[in-house]
Structure formats: C-alpha cells, structure tokens
Amino acid sequence: MEVQFKIFRYDPAVDPGPYYRRYKVEARPEDRILDCLNRIKWEQDGTLSYRMSCAHGVCGSDGMKINGTCGLACQKLVKDYMCPEIVLEPLPVFKVLKDLLVDMDSFLQRINAVKPYLIGDKVPEKEIPQNPEERKKIDEVVRCILCACCTASCPVMGYNKSYVGPAAIVWMYRYIFDSRDSAHEERLAQADDPNGVWPCVNHFECTRVCPKEIPVTKSINTIKREIERLRTKE
Ligand code: SF4
Ligand code: SF4
Ligand code: FES
C-alpha cells in the first residue's frame, strides 16, 4: 500500500524557517514508522535528518512526535495510524538542530544533575546484595532508556523551563528507592525543590507516552509522599 508522510523540515543553517515536505512510500501495515523513514532517506531524500540506532526500542534515540503524540519511530507501526497522512515532527520542548533532530543537552544535563549512580561511603570491595523485595521497588524505573518522550510531552515543560521534568524524576526515584544507595535524604532534598517534583500537576501525559510503560506519574507521587513522610518524622 502507498503511505503518505508529512515531515517537518528545518535546517537553521540555510532555511529561513521550518516547513513541511510530503513523501509517498510503499509500505506494509506491519512496517515500522522507522522503516518508512529509512526508505524515504535512502531512496528519495538523503538530506532528511533523524536519529536512530538499535531499531528495537532499546537505545531511545528515535523519539519524535508522530501524529501529535511522542513515541519511538521503531516501535510504532504503519497500521497504528490508519489515516490519509502520517505527520512526523521533532520532539517538542527541545531546540531543533535539523529536521527531526533535537538538541538533547539540556535533557541530559538534568539527568546528570540527579547523580545517576550509586552513592556510598566507600567503594565496595564486592557486590552489594539486594533481596528480591528491595529490587522490586525499582524494577519498573530501571527500564528507562532516556528517550525524552515523557519530558517532551509534559505540558508543564511548556511554561516552566526550570522544571526538572519527568525523566529526571524517574532517575531520582531509581536511586531514592535503591536499597544499596546511602544518599536517600540528600536525594529527597533535591527532589523537594520548587523545580523538583512539585511543579508536576498530574497530567499523566508522561505515563501515556512512555515506550517502556514506566508508571512515571505514580513514581513522582511516590517521591512526594516520601518527602512528606520524612517531614512529619522530623
Ligand atoms: S504527570 Fe507531571 S510530569 Fe507527567 S506530564 Fe503530567 S505534569 Fe508532566
Ligand atoms: S521515563 Fe519513559 S518516556 Fe521518559 S525517558 Fe524514560 S523511557 Fe523515555
Ligand atoms: S532506534 Fe533505538 S529505540 Fe528506536
């Protein structure tokens, strides 16, 4: 079948402004959107830019807006969009570098600020044991592949550029509730910031778009409750 794509194009080095270009490709309903993008780039227009690597929902590099909703192009199929035209746009919130490529620096800086590694008093000589119940607490959040779909979809990010955003909070959660980490209170203090967990107003958009089905909003609310529990203890 023939599928029509309408793709956001913008090269700040040469274009006066963004525009959309239409392409037609032969595709099967079970083809991935990424397969179609590759066909367009390899057979019709080599100037089209986007990120991809694993093509199997693992690397998180091909997050984009597909018919208005953020997702991974390698996880969405043509048959998910049975409509006259499929619109591809860059992730919102971030600066466009070229076409579907966005600048991820601000996103990754937010993740780095969370100290995404175990903090301990000294380097352990052997592995730190963790029992199944302790591990269960972080089972869901360790699936994060840093695709940024949640942060790009969060309506709060649109008006509060200082908000740390849902992905960084998922990484806070991952270490706050990791039994092997010894910076529990320090991490909670970081989350208990006017631009930490509190700007979240439960839109659930982050949870809806997460390709790894991480309960993002629930994780944010669990941290809020942990902060309040600690406050009442003091
Ligand atoms: S639940 Fe919170 S973080 Fe997620 S989209 Fe809504 S406001 Fe943003
Ligand atoms: S929480 Fe989900 S949507 Fe957000 S960056 Fe991680 S994998 Fe992507
Ligand atoms: S290309 Fe790696 S997640 Fe899609």
Brief rundown of the structure:
This protein is an alpha+beta fold and about 230 residues long. The chain has helices spanning about 35-45, 105-115, 130-135, 150-155, 155-160, 165-175, 185-190, 205-210, 215-234; strands spanning about 1-10, 20-25, 65, 70, 85-90, 95-100, 100.
Q: In words, what does this structure look like?
A:
With 234 residues, this protein is an alpha+beta fold. It has two domains: 2-102, Beta-grasp domain (Ubiquitin-like (UB roll)); 105-233, Orthogonal Bundle (Fumarate Reductase Iron-sulfur Protein, Chain B, domain 2). It is 33% helix and 14% strand. A five-stranded mixed β-sheet has the order 2-1-5-3-4. 35% of the residues are buried. The structure holds iron/sulfur cluster (2 copies) and FE2/S2 (inorganic) cluster (FES). Residues 154, 156, 166, 200-206, 216-217, 220 line the site of one iron/sulfur cluster (SF4). FE2/S2 (inorganic) cluster is lined by residues 52-55, 57-62, 72, 74.
Radius of gyration: 20 Å
Mean pLDDT: 96
User: Which H/E pattern describes the elements?
Assistant: EEHEEEEEHHHHHHHH
Total number of beta strands:
7
Strand order of the largest sheet: 2-1-5-3-4
As for the number of domains, it is 2
CATH class type of the largest domain: Mainly Alpha
List the total number of helices: 9
User: Can you summarize the main beta sheet?
Assistant: 5 strands, mixed
User: Do you know the CATH topology of the largest domain?
Assistant: Fumarate Reductase Iron-sulfur Protein, Chain B, domain 2
Beta fraction of the residues?
Answer: 5-15%
